[in-house]
């Protein structure tokens, strides 16, 4: 069994795209270079690209799936 320790994150999302198709929306974001997370008491660089798919349910936007991938340096690779 694997246990996951809480991770403190400090980041700002940059919004790359927001597309709305009726009651469904797709949002693409990334973290700026230099965003950090604290794992085991040590800061680590946190570079991610994310995709959020939202669906409007009862007049409120809800995240349906969310996915991300890591990139060692934004704009490279």
The SSE order reads EEEEEEE
Strands of the widest sheet, in order across it, are: 2-3-6-7
User: Which overall shape is indicated by the principal axes computed on the Cα atoms?
Assistant: elongated
Low-pLDDT residue intervals, each spanning 5 or more residues: none
Strand proportion, as a percent range, falls in over 45%
- What is the terminal-to-terminal distance? 34 Å
Total of DSSP H or I helical runs spanning 4+ residues: 0
Main beta-sheet annotation: 4 strands, antiparallel
Tell me the number of strands: 7
Structural class, from helix and strand content?
mainly beta
What share of the residues lie within helices?
under 10%
Mean pLDDT: 80
Rg, alpha carbons:
15 Å
Overview in brief:
The chain has 77 residues and is an all-beta fold. It is 0% helix and 64% strand. Strands 2-3-6-7 form a 4-stranded antiparallel β-sheet, with no helix packed on it. A 3-stranded antiparallel β-sheet has the order 1-4-5, with no helix packed on it.
Account of the 3D structure:
There is one protein chain. With 77 residues, the chain is mainly beta. The chain has strands at 8-10, 13-21, 24-31, 36-39, 42-45, 48-57, 60-70. Strand 2 and strand 3 form a beta hairpin. The protein has a four-stranded antiparallel β-sheet with strand order 2-3-6-7, with no helix packed on it. Strands 1-4-5 form a three-stranded antiparallel β-sheet, with no helix packed on it. It is elongated, with a radius of gyration of 15 Å.
């Amino acid at each position: 069994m694997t246990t996951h320790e809480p991770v403190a994150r400090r980041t700002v999302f940059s919004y790359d795209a927001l597309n709305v198709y009726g009651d469904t929306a797709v949002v693409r974001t990334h973290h700026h270079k230099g965003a950090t997370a604290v794992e085991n008491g040590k800061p680590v660089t946190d570079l991610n690209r994310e995709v959020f798919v939202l669906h409007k349910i009862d007049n409120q936007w809800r995240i349906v799936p969310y996915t991300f991938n890591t990139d060692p340096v934004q704009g490279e690779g």
